[in-house]
Every structure is written in structure tokens, then in C-alpha cells.
Design goal:
about 190 residues, alpha+beta, 5 helices
């Protein structure tokens, strides 16, 4: 699959570049990212180089994943992607550097990625379903998913492998014909 750029009012999302390595390394020192995202700890420059190489090339080439660097004014601020693409479905994942949180950037990025996922194959992936997963307790990620229109579907008890042990896994889904409603989620205040 060819690498696709996505644009929003404030963001450019593009495949990761080698120039993103320093910012990726710095962002992945954040304890919250290390807690919520299955990355190596400690996270080194070589980990970031491997990430940029794998997701910049092989994921797109295989058609099984699309990973975008989230940039604002040409500055790398996070990453978002669709993984496990197949059988008309995929799983969304995302993270944002601590300095860029709280401004709605991740919601904006996730909305664009969901729209691309559901768009017809000539301009998107033609998906029918996109899933979201997070370790139970990741309220910030859940709020983004809810704002984009995902429907909370439940908790998979010990359904995820965490850093130190199995953890409960929250799961939500959005279907191509769900629209952009923001349903209530029992797990969110």
C-alpha cells in the first residue's frame, strides 16, 4: 500500500521519518506512555530508529498497518495508526507527547484516521469496523475514543499482556454506519 498523508485543520499526519527519531525517543521517556503503550523500557534511540524503520516501511508495504507521525507546524508530537488491517477491520492505537496533550489534537487525529479507514477503497481502506483497546484505567485514551464515536463494548478480564502481568483490557468499536454520535460509556465519569 502506498503511504498516505492525512491533513486536518491543525495537523499533518505522515509516515514516520528518520528525522522523528529524536522526538520519539524524548516522548517515550514519559512514564505515562511507558505505562500505557507496550514499548521497551528503558526506551533508547535505537528503539526509536527501529520503530521508524518498521512502521515507515514494512507496515505500509504489507498493507497490514498504517502508522502516521502526528505533526503540528512540522514538529513531531505523537503517533497514530491502524494495525491488524484485514477482513474489513482494523485496530486503532495512538499516543501523544506530554507537551501536546490537552488541546484536542489526538481527537482531531483519530477522527481523520477513522474517516480514512471507512472511506471507499479508492480514497481509504473501506473498513466496516475499527476497534480500540486500552489497559483498563486509561481514561484519557477512552475519552478520545468516545469523542470520535466509538461505542464501549466491555472489559476483557485479563485480556491484555501488560508490562508486569496480564491486565484487564477495555474494548470499544465503531462501525462505518455508526455516525459520529458520542455515546455514554459506563467506565467514564
Amino acid at each position: 500500500m502506498d503511504k498516505i498523508e492525512l491533513r486536518t485543520e491543525r495537523l499533518l499526519m505522515r509516515a514516520p521519518f528518520p528525522s522523528d527519531v529524536e522526538a520519539t525517543t524524548a516522548a517515550c521517556q514519559d512514564p505515562e506512555i511507558q505505562r500505557r503503550i507496550p514499548i521497551p523500557v528503558p526506551y533508547t534511540r535505537s528503539d526509536a530508529e527501529r520503530y521508524v524503520t518498521i512502521y515507515s516501511d514494512s507496515g505500509w508495504a504489507s498493507g497490514k498497518s498504517c502508522t502516521w507521525a502526528i505533526t503540528i507546524a512540522d514538529e513531531f508530537v505523537g503517533a497514530i495508526g491502524l494495525d491488524g488491517i484485514g477482513s474489513e477491520q482494523a485496530t486503532i492505537g495512538y499516543w501523544l507527547a506530554v507537551s501536546s496533550r490537552g488541546r484536542g489534537l489526538l481527537t482531531e487525529a483519530a477522527q481523520a484516521v477513522v474517516e480514512f479507514g471507512f472511506a471507499r477503497p479508492s480514497t481509504g481502506l473501506g473498513l466496516i469496523r475499527i476497534e480500540w483497546h486500552a489497559y483498563a484505567g486509561n481514561v484519557a485514551s477512552a475519552r478520545v475514543a468516545r469523542r470520535v464515536g466509538f461505542h464501549y463494548e466491555g472489559t476483557l478480564r485479563l485480556g491484555a499482556v501488560g508490562r508486569y502481568a496480564r491486565e484487564d483490557d477495555w474494548v470499544a468499536g465503531i462501525l462505518a454506519d455508526d455516525g459520529q454520535s458520542s455515546p455514554a460509556w459506563a467506565i467514564l465519569p
